[in-house]
Amino acid sequence: MFTRRLFLASAAATVAAPAVLRAEANWPQRPLKLIVPWPPGGGVDTFGRIVQAALSAELGQPVTIENIGGSSGRIGTLAAARAAADGYTVALVNDTFAATEAIPIAGTPSLRGSLAPVTLAIDAPQGLFTHPKSGLATVQDFVAAAKARPGRLNVGVPGLGSSQHLTSELLLRAAGDLRVTHVPYRGGGPLLQDLVAGTVDAAVVTFSAAAQQARAGTLVALATTGAQRTPAFPAVPTASETVAPGFVQTTWQGFLVPKGTPDAARTRLHAAAQAVLRDPAVIARLGELGFAPIGQDGAAFAALIDKTVETFADIASVRQIAAGD
């Protein structure tokens, strides 16, 4: 009887295996959930909503966005890591994912070990913005004010320990080891609302997140952190050409899935993302906001994550920044 049971179990597994393989090969067969670990209105949410419809069309299934903000992206990213590894939950993260890995919370697992990179989607500069009544007309004005009043300028960031916070610290160090008071928000959307209202003096956010307000004149773009000026905003200087020679620190965004997601699903998702990033309409829309499509594979994305973690860990050590500060 024992031998017969083993035989029947083996036979059942043999029959089931092709069915599983067929299901993986036909992925996706139902809607996908795209977790954006930030509230609506920030740079990650903006990119997600630009590509949402095109990604749905490429995959032949609806793609719904779920915003899960909090703890500098940790809460939403952790939700993605805990999801079933079946390809139907995807996380869209930016370099704050690397920032939270560089500044871990004691007792929490590394999410790099729980999520698999699929596609490095885009690259973009961060932006230093202010409001029209701040009295800061240029990035040189900002630096002068920071020097004259160490620690008294309020600079909003989408969370302490976020990529924008650490990029701000990198810029401040490069511009003369300046000190400001960083004010944390749950995401770029809430931060920009307060900046428009004049609640904070300035903010560092992904440039695209504030592009519309800059065009409308409700915000003033002081500088970008890219190597060159953003084509859509040629009048806005880079930090490198003004107050921090040689300084370049861009932000990136990409897709991750829970570790263990079938290769067939990861391959299909990557191909769909590449196709979307080659779509002329998507490229045009991204260009208006300062996003540059990349579309590199999971291996390249993993290498970039590791490099960014090292950069952020270094500045966190220098500035004595710890999780929860």
Summarize the topology.
Blueprint: H1 2-25, E1 32-36, H2 43-59, E2 63-67, H3 74-81, E3 89-94, H4 96-102, E4 115-130, H5 139-148, E5 154-157, H6 163-174, E6 181-184, H7 188-197, E7 202-206, H8 211-216, E8 220-224, E9 250-258, H9 263-277, H10 280-289, E10 292-297, H11 298-318
Parallel strand pairs: 1-2, 1-3, 5-6, 5-7
Antiparallel strand pairs: 3-9, 4-7, 4-8, 4-9, 4-10
Helix pairs in contact: 2-9, 4-11
Sum this structure up briefly.
With 325 residues, the protein is of the alpha/beta class. The protein is built from eleven helices and ten strands.
- CATH first level of the largest domain: Alpha Beta
Compute the number of strand runs. 10
CATH superfamily of the largest domain: Bordetella uptake gene, domain 1
The outline comes out as: globular
Number of helices: 11
What's the story with the biggest beta sheet? 10 strands, mixed
Query: And the CATH topology of the largest domain?
Result: D-Maltodextrin-Binding Protein, domain 2
Q: What percentage of amino acids are in beta strands?
A: 15-25%
Helix proportion range: 40-55%
Tell me the number of structural domains. Answer: 2
The class by helix and strand makeup works out as alpha/beta
Low-confidence stretches: 1-23
Describe the structure in your own words.
It is a single chain. With 325 residues, this protein is of the alpha/beta class. It has two domains: 8-123 and 251-318, Bordetella uptake gene, domain 1 (D-Maltodextrin-Binding Protein, domain 2), CATH 3.40.190.150; 125-224, 3-Layer(aba) Sandwich (D-Maltodextrin-Binding Protein, domain 2). Helix content is 43%, strand content 20%. It contains eleven helices and ten strands. The chain has helices spanning 2-25, 43-59, 74-81, 96-102, 139-148, 163-174, 188-197, 211-216, 263-277, 280-289, 298-318; strands at residues 32-36, 63-67, 89-94, 115-130, 154-157, 181-184, 202-206, 220-224, 250-258, 292-297. Strands 1, 2, 3, 4, 5, 6, 7, 8, 9 and 10 form a ten-stranded mixed beta sheet that branches. Strand 5 (154-157), helix 6 (163-174) and strand 6 (181-184) form a beta-alpha-beta unit. Helix 4 (96-102) packs across helix 11. The protein is globular. It starts with a helix and ends in a 7-residue tail after the last helix. The relative contact order is 0.19. Mean pLDDT is 91; it is low at 1-23.
